[in-house]
Amino acid sequence: MAEIAPSILAADFANLQRDVEMINNSSAGYIHVDIMDGMFVPNISFGLPVCEAIHRHAKKPLDVHLMIEQPDRYLEAFRNAGASGITVHYEACPHLHRTIQHIKELGAEPGVALNPHTPVEVLSEIMGDVSLILIMSVNPGFGGQKFIENTYKKIATLDRYRKEFGYNFKIEVDGGVNLNNAPRLVREGVDILVAGSFVFTSPDPAKTIAELGNS
């Protein structure tokens, strides 16, 4: 079984409070908040004011994923906006260890994300310092994309590192997650499944969250 982190990016923004309350009342473990700047990824999502608004109504921890350039400039601001965990991209952080330490100093759970083309081995020197490693199973920027099959191999490699060296980080996967691939993802070692459009376009989102969690 895995914890579910519904991606609020796929919610109905005209009824954001309603959708946050749906997640509150569901079996989800987190609310996943995707921040995009139109530079690191070819899309713009939302920023600090919306994150703060989500936090005002949220009863689940905010799992904030910064898909932005120079994320160090905004770590404190997103922590103040309610982030329980802050995940930055390996590809956007030339001084990743320093960035991770700063997130820790702010009192948030530090995470690092990898784009589909980036091998997990690049994190070998930082695995003992992070709470979470996020594997992107689609190219970041847009919801509703097809799951990239090589993701399974990357997760299995990460899980092997974790067991071999006794690391405590959780493995999260984001992109194209559904009831067809969730069971195998969990078998390979995933702890947290991020699901956006699959949850919010379903007839009963809370039921879909529960079904994913039982994978």
Could you explain how this protein is built, in words?
The chain is of the alpha/beta class and 215 residues long. The protein has one domain: Alpha-Beta Barrel (TIM Barrel). The protein is built from 8 helices and 8 strands; from the N terminus they run βαβαβαβαββαβαβαα. The protein has helices spanning 16-24, 48-57, 75-80, 96-105, 151-165, 182-188, 197-200, 205-213; strands spanning 3-6, 31-36, 62-67, 83-89, 109-114, 132-136, 170-174, 192-195. The chain has an 8-stranded parallel β-sheet. One of its GO terms (cellular component) is cytoplasm.
Indicate the CATH topology.
Answer: TIM Barrel
H/E order of the elements?
EHEHEHEHEEHEHEHH
| CATH architecture group name | Alpha-Beta Barrel
Domain count: 1
Q: For the terminal residues, how far apart are their CA atoms?
A: 6 Å
**What is the SS-derived class?**
alpha/beta
What is the name of the CATH superfamily?
A: Aldolase class I
Principal-axis shape:
globular
Pathway: Carbohydrate degradation
EC number: 5.1.3.1
Family: Belongs to the ribulose-phosphate 3-epimerase family.
Organism: Dyadobacter fermentans (strain ATCC 700827 / DSM 18053 / CIP 107007 / KCTC 52180 / NS114)
